[in-house]
Design goal:
The protein has one domain: Alpha/Beta hydrolase fold, catalytic domain (Rossmann fold). The chain has eleven helices and nine strands. The protein has a nine-stranded mixed β-sheet with strand order 1-9-8-7-6-4-5-3-2, with helices on both faces. Strand 2 and strand 3 form a beta hairpin. This is Alpha/beta hydrolase. Pfam families: Abhydrolase_3. Keywords: Hydrolase. InterPro entries: AB_hydrolase_3, AB_hydrolase_fold, GDXG_lipolytic_enzyme.
């Protein structure tokens, strides 16, 4: 019988955690600790930059595929990076929001992954460098992300001639931003979103789900780190349930674009992602949900360096191509 790669629900408590992960966790352990200091924040971001250089970058991310162009665009408050594959067809445009808990992450950190997405999906990727907290707290990340989507819609014919399909995609905090952009656009009706792709998304500011404690430490993203990120981003603790930060608390999740939502079996965010998928379905939306087994938060970023990672990546790409081209 073929090895089970993913589940459509959460029957994974008995799945053993691969020991190899334990050996690579030190690359992703943030030095941020409470009380949060500028020194700790700088050290964490410097570590992230080091991971994205030289041999370590290659071991984690692999080769960067050749594209037709990679162009940086400077907007008023933030930047975009546009990845265009070698193609003569009208291409869908995916707006990509990186992860990092609203505190970490960058265009550079997700550069190789976005290049691979552009080539393997045959799409234009617009990566958004929204401003980070605590320097720019809630709701600035959402404001920047929505402004980026407005810009993409305005320039869609320049990004991909004769194409009108725009998708939003993000991982972790970026997954939360992707669906928040879709929700805001549902109310404002500034443009049309053809689909949302949510990768182990952070959609609730409350950590009252079983996976929050089951995988609270030792699995790349810790519950303690999530609390640090939350404290950096929202200055008012009451905003942990604000629908503009926690979309799972939005009272109306109907009439959203078709959704693909991915979670990781050993991730403190797993159960809130699963709960969000179920709420979207209950609200009448078209949803595909996959919980990848024996893996952790951030598996796409390091898929070439982990067990089953390449199989997961291939399935991930095949799943998205069906949304984009079927």
């Amino acid at each position: 019988m073929p090895e089970k790669l993913y589940s459509s629900d959460l029957e994974i408590f008995e799945v053993p955690f691969p020991k190899l992960f334990k050996k690579i966790l030190h690359f992703f352990e943030d030095p941020l600790k409470e009380p949060i200091t500028q020194e700790g924040l700088k050290k964490a971001r410097d570590l992230e930059k080091q991971i994205n250089k030289g041999l370590i970058k290659f071991l984690i991310h692999g080769f960067s595929p050749k594209l037709a162009s990679v162009v940086d665009i400077n907007l008023k408050n933030f930047n975009l990076r546009i990845y265009t594959p070698i193609s003569n067809e009208p291409l869908p445009v995916i707006i990509y929001f990186h992860g990092g808990g609203y505190v970490m992450g960058s265009i550079e950190n997700s550069d190789v992954l976005c290049r691979k997405f552009a080539k393997d999906l045959n799409v234009v990727i617009v990566s958004v460098a929204y401003r980070l907290s605590p320097e720019f707290p809630f709701p600035i990340a959402l404001e920047d992300s929505y402004s980026a989507a407005i810009w993409v819609n305005k320039h869609i014919s320049e990004l991909s001639e004769n194409s009108k399909k725009i998708y939003v995609m993000g991982d972790s905090a970026g997954g939360g931003l992707a669906t928040l952009v879709a929700l805001k656009n549902k109310c404002q009706k500034d443009f049309e979103i053809s689909g949302q792709i949510l990768i182990y998304p952070w959609v609730s500011g409350e950590f009252n789900y079983p996976s929050s404690d089951l995988f609270k430490e030792g699995y790349v993203l810790s519950k303690k780190m999530l609390k640090v990120f939350r404290k950096c981003y929202i200055t008012n603790p009451k905003d942990s349930q604000n629908p503009d930060f926690s979309p799972i608390y939005n009272s109306d999740l109907s009439k959203l674009p078709k959704t693909i939502l991915f979670t990781a079996s050993h991730d403190p965010l797993r159960d809130q992602g699963n709960a969000y998928a179920k709420k979207l379905l209950k609200a009448g939306n078209q949803v595909i949900y996959k919980n990848y087994l024996q893996t952790v938060h951030g598996f796409l970023t390091i898929y070439g360096f982990i067990p089953r990672g390449k199989k997961i990546y291939r399935d991930f790409i095949q799943t998205l191509r069906k949304m984009l081209y079927d």
